[in-house]
Design brief:
six-stranded mixed β-sheet; 6 strands; 1 helix; alpha+beta
Length: about 110
């Protein structure tokens, strides 16, 4: 399995998520790729849904940036999410997902203020 990152931007939002592709052509790998891409596509949709909602602060900017670390067992994906208003970060959190064979085997959420 390979990965790249895809960047999606609007005036108030910047989302960088991983995009996985199969290398072997095996059915199981294709299913894993579909599941993993669907997971991060849903994260992207959720971020855009929030930034387009009435509850999003006027003048705010939302950033979500994925960092991917590939190892022999799978992938660790950290998504750093920040809400900025008036040039200051008012909310920040990091989501970490450890993937093995297309399944999240460990997750962690860290909030920062």
């Amino acid at each position: 399995m390979r990965y790249t990152t895809h960047l999606y931007n609007t005036k108030s939002t910047s989302v960088l998520i991983p995009f996985f592709t199969a290398e072997t052509g095996e059915k199981r790998e294709a299913e894993n790729v579909k599941r993993m891409n669907g997971f991060y596509d849903e994260l992207k949709r959720s971020v855009f849904g929030y930034t387009e909602s009435d509850s999003f602060p006027e003048g705010g900017r939302y950033f979500a940036k994925a960092l991917v670390d590939e190892n022999e067992k799978g992938f660790e994906v950290k998504v750093i999410m920040r809400l900025r208003c008036g040039g200051k970060t008012i909310s920040s959190r990091t989501l970490t997902h450890t993937w093995q064979d297309g399944v999240v085997i460990k997750k962690q959420v860290d909030s920062h203020q």
